[in-house]
Amino acid sequence: MTTAEPSNPVPVDATPGPIYIDTQHEDMVHDAQMDYYGSKLATCSSDRTIKIYNVSENAYELSATIQGGHEGPVWQVSWAHPKFGVLLASCSFDGSVLLHQEVRPREWTVIHAARHLHESSVNGVAFAPHEHGLLVAAASSDGRVSVLQHEAANNTWGVHYLTDCPLGVNAVSWAPWGAFYQADQVEAPRLVTAGCDNQIRFWIYQEGQWTTDSSIVLDVTEVAHKDWVRDVAWAPVLLPNHNMVASCSEDGSVIVWTQVPPANVDGDENTQESFSQWKPTLLHKFDAPVWRVSWSVTGHFLAVSAGDSDVTLWKAGLDGAWSQVSTVDAQSTSQGQ
Questions:
Q1: Going by C-beta distance under 8 Å and a sequence separation of 6 or more, which residues neighbour residue 205?
Q2: Residue 202 sits in a domain of what CATH number?
Q3: Is 171 within a domain?
Q4: Domains in the chain, number
Q5: Among the listed residues 25, 313, 13, 329, the one whose alpha carbon sits nearest the alpha carbon of residue 41
Q6: CA distance linking residue 35 with residue 20, whole number of Å
Q7: Is residue 169 part of a domain?
Q8: Where are the WD repeats (predicted)?
Q9: Which residues, including other chains, have CB under 8 Å from residue 288's CB and lie 6 or more apart?
Q10: Are residues 274 and 151 in the same domain?
Q11: Counting beta carbons within 10 angstroms of the beta carbon of residue 29, is it exposed (0 to 12), middle (13 to 18) or buried (19 or more)?
């Protein structure tokens, strides 16, 4: 059920800096995501609701409250590309993934309810790049990742399952379109997942099935997570075969994995190795668990949300070393409210 909210824009301080929004959730907020245009904000909470806000540089307003769909805490939300309409996916402790669409301004409806999609909590959800079609991946504590695919011909949804980590999967992220390039080949969808076995895993869709991407080799000899990997995020790509993935862990570590471009074989520029190595760089070791990592649109900045109530912003220098450039801490948050 959707509750349309009255239009009462709340002005915000015009001074440059963070904008604080009173979400009006009745319990802990677990995720907040901006849409493609940066004009809508979706939040989800342990109160089992999703709230949609219209936002601008100098005001925000609560547009709708989506409630009654999930039977447990809602962990994460994800916006689809606008070519598919105003579409939002949500995942919950109840093992389900729901797809919500704004059919009219301020009016939302569930267009697909994948209930009991998993046998345990669904911890992460993400839409694929629109070039692959309408696909949404979900990571679950039952150790599997599901990929929902919309069949436009008959308006139905199919599902593929990946058996990932037996201990559970906390997050999933898609490779951006253009992340990998091979002449005369259509780019295959790829995923990276965050597991409760302290590892990240890469997956590729080939010949009608999802398999482990054996072309990616991770160098874990010096830097690795020592506890659950809580989140993983594939950076936007500016050049093919120049990829970065950020992961964060319960142990407080944030690692940036950087692809080493495939080397030429025997000096032949048209022949490359069939695999690529990924080198890890420890961005920082926090004193508290790190829950979320998120890239800027260009992939130049990385936001990190940790258990110390701080959100920090990081940027890599020309030498490859990461440095903190900004922070939003609990003290400033309380002052802003």
A1: 147, 188, 189, 190
A2: 2.130.10.10
A3: no
A4: 2
A5: 25
A6: 18
A7: no
A8: 222-257
A9: 252, 306, 307, 308
A10: no
A11: middle
